[in-house]
From TrEMBL:
Superkingdom as given in the UniProt entry: Eukaryota
Keyword Phosphoprotein belongs to the record: yes
Entry protein name: Signal recognition particle subunit SRP72
Segments of skewed composition (Low complexity): 618-635
GO CC aspect terms: cytosol; endoplasmic reticulum; signal recognition particle, endoplasmic reticulum targeting
Gene label: Srp72
Entry's localization field: Cytoplasm; Endoplasmic reticulum
InterPro entries associated with the record: Signal_recog_part_SRP72_RNA-bd, SRP72, SRP72_TPR-like, TPR-like_helical_dom_sf, TPR_rpt
Length: 672
């Protein structure tokens, strides 16, 4: 009975194995898994059955369950047997470090393990080792996967160019596929060759459309989805070129397609946020959700993830979420203590809260802890001090940056600020320190001589003639043929020591040697000349004879006499005040406002006023001989009791009489 049972079990197992084999060939791994489980019920430690079960689970995407089977049967499934499957499950579960250990612990490095090793190194961003692994694979492999290996190799070179700023070497790869063209474009972007990169991406798009058009089952939506990553890089190039509107439009088109690649969506959303900056904050808050999608951290490089986190902190600052901003920047600082951006974001947030002193203290602490990055931090500190109006303290901070204080740009900034503060001595000291540095380390540098000249000009401008002379003598000593420096030196000595100036003037070249051979005609006819000589026209006929008869004698133009006025009388002397305006002439008496000369005064009907002879200012002895100019007050005699006509008021007239008359004039058509 025992023997019969064993024979029956063996027969059933054989049938199950044939079923597993048939399902495996058809790609029906779910059904194959059921048969394998039945085999394991018959023989639970069957090594082949356990291997088949792991493979079926991997093919169905159940990586966690497959790894559980491997770890449960470690005695049967040793590392020699199942190393590749175990490492692959760990790789797909994003346990990259564990996958690397599994591969390295395998006793035999098969081709499958080498392929997986290259992928693991790429995910760990160990690009140099990854490049060596793929080169070895391409050199020692000859199968149908050669094109895929070359694509992976070009991806490694592109990553080196983009993230490590390494100049990529020419691999000699024929860009026959759109993947190879795309990777080549990414490498060019890393080098800053944006126009060339755009052309490569356009070629990649064309190749992609051609390859997909050969498949009749592929729809236009499928083509656009495949092209999304290429269009995303095109938009990125546009953004780098300053074409933000075009880039934004293309980014939004990609988002509308709803691609399944969460990494692509996260990068596009981040780039839109950088375009928005502190504007369109509501849209940025919507886009930032795409960067938080599940699995994003496994699709992007460390630098990409870091950039996204920085932008989240900045967005929190722009939206006045101070606590969130501090939390994100503190987290970033703990992850990368030596990085500048987290502490700069914290300082910016403190400045928004008007805590400038605290911001400067924070930056100072970071500069003390990380001397390698102190220069950029101190530049920010100086900017904050200038914003507060503490220019002298800002200068002190700038002068403490050892590696920058001799640079021409730094010298110029410090001299400008000290001049603004009228601290000429400190400005000259800045020049002196910079000149001494170049004299010690780069004496033949053109910057050295340029600084000496600028220092001399600065000293001359601020009256430090003797110090300027010392600098100019040094310049002339360096180049005795420099006439410009010699002229400056003579000019400076003429103010201090005229005799010395005369001695030096003997070194000036003579006027004959300084004469320039200039073609005057060519200069006058050159483009941009303010005067162009008119070309003589051809003379024909009578005109030619006239010209010949006249010879060199030129006609003198008769001066036209000015026209005289119609009522001009040569016997009468012209009015000496005729050039003055009428109101400013001595005999002007003003315009008369009535036909009758005697009706000067004003008053109610029937009232009497003083006689016209009494009111005529020209007849009074105390009246000034001339009328006042417009805008000046009229002089009135102190002995006269006569009130000028404009100042008279009729007897008994109320104060509001003038207003009543104005109202009456508006409504009345006739007189009283």
């Amino acid at each position: 009975k025992m023997a019969a049972a064993a024979a029956g079990g063996a027969g059933a197992a054989a049938a199950l194995w044939s079923e597993v084999n048939r399902c495996g060939q058809n790609g029906d791994f779910a059904r194959a898994l059921k048969s394998v489980n039945k085999i394991l019920q018959i023989s639970k430690d069957d090594v082949t059955a356990l291997q088949c079960k792991v493979v079926c689970l991997i093919q169905n995407g159940n990586f966690k369950e497959a790894l559980g089977v491997i770890n449960t049967h470690t005695k049967v499934l040793t590392s020699d047997i199942i190393a590749f499957e175990k490492a692959y499950c760990e790789y797909r579960l994003n346990r990259i470090e564990n996958a690397l250990k599994t591969i390295q612990s395998a006793s035999q490095q098969t081709d499958k393990l080498k392929e997986l090793y290259g992928q693991v190194l790429y995910r760990l961003e160990r690009y140099d080792d990854c490049l060596a692994a793929y080169r070895d694979l391409i050199r020692n492999s000859q199968d149908e996967y050669e094109e895929e290996r070359k694509t992976n190799l070009s991806a490694v070179v592109a990553a080196q160019s983009t993230w490590e700023k390494v100049m990529p070497e020419d691999l000699g790869l024929r860009e026959a596929t759109y993947e190879l063209c795309y990777n080549s474009a990414c490498a060019l972007i890393g080098q800053g060759k944006l126009n060339e990169a755009m052309k490569k991406l356009q070629k990649a798009e064309e190749l992609c459309r051609q390859s997909l058009s050969e498949d009749s089952d592929v729809t236009e939506e499928d083509v656009e989805a495949e092209l999304a990553i290429i269009h995303g890089q095109m938009a990125y190039i546009m953004q780098l070129q300053g074409r933000t509107e075009d880039a934004l439009q293309l980014y939004n088109q990609i988002i509308k397609l709803k691609p399944t690649d969460v990494g692509l969506l996260a990068v596009i959303a981040n780039n839109i946020i950088t375009i928005n900056k502190d504007q369109n904050v509501f849209d940025s808050k919507k886009k930032v959700k795409l960067t938080n999608a599940e699995g994003v951290e496994h699709k992007l490089s460390k630098k990409q993830l870091q950039a996204i986190e920085f932008n989240k902190a900045l967005l929190a600052m722009y939206t006045n979420q101070a606590d969130q901003c501090r939390k994100l920047s503190a987290s970033l600082q703990s992850q990368s203590p030596e990085h500048l951006l987290p502490v700069l974001i914290q300082a910016a947030q403190l400045c928004r809260e008007k805590q400038h002193a605290k911001a400067v203290g924070l930056l100072q602490d970071f500069a003390d802890q990380h001397p390698a990055n102190a220069a950029e931090i101190k530049l920010t500190m100086a900017q904050l001090k200038i914003a507060q109006g503490s220019v002298t303290k800002a200068c002190m901070i700038l002068r403490s940056i050892e590696e920058l204080r001799h640079k021409p740009g730094m010298v110029s900034a410090l001299v400008t600020m000290y001049s603004h503060e009228e601290d000429i001595d400190s400005a000259i000291e800045v020049f002196t320190q910079a000149i001494q540095w170049y004299q010690q380390f780069q004496p033949k540098s053109p910057v050295h001589l340029s600084l000496i000249r600028e220092a001399a000009n600065f000293k001359l401008k601020h009256g430090r003639k003797k110090e300027a002379i010392s600098d100019l003598e040094e310049l002339w000593k360096q180049n005795p043929k420099d006439v410009h420096t010699l002229a400056q030196l003579i000019s400076a000595y003429s103010l201090v020591d005229p005799e010395k100036a005369k001695v030096l003037s003997k070194h000036l070249p003579s006027s004959d040697t300084m004469s320039l051979k200039v073609d005057v005609d060519a200069l006058e006819n050159s483009h941009g000349a303010t005067y162009v000589r008119k070309k003589a026209g051809k003379l024909t006929g009578d005109n030619q004879q006239k010209e010949q008869g006249q010879g060199d004698v030129k006609k003198k133009k008769k001066k036209k006499q000015g026209k005289l006025p119609k009522n001009y009388d040569p016997k009468v002397t012209p009015d000496p005040e005729r050039w003055l305006p009428m109101r400013e002439r001595s005999y002007y008496r003003g315009r008369k406002k009535g036909k009758k000369k005697d009706q000067v005064g004003k008053g109610t009907q029937g009232s009497t006023t003083a006689g016209s002879s009494e009111l005529d200012a020209s007849r009074t002895a105390s009246s000034p001989p001339t009328s006042p100019r417009p805008g000046s007050a009229a002089a009135v005699s102190a002995t006269s009791n006569v009130i000028p006509p404009r100042h008279q008021k009729p007897a008994g007239a109320p104060a509001t009489k003038k207003k009543q008359q104005q109202k009456k004039k508006k409504g009345a058509k006739g007189g009283w």
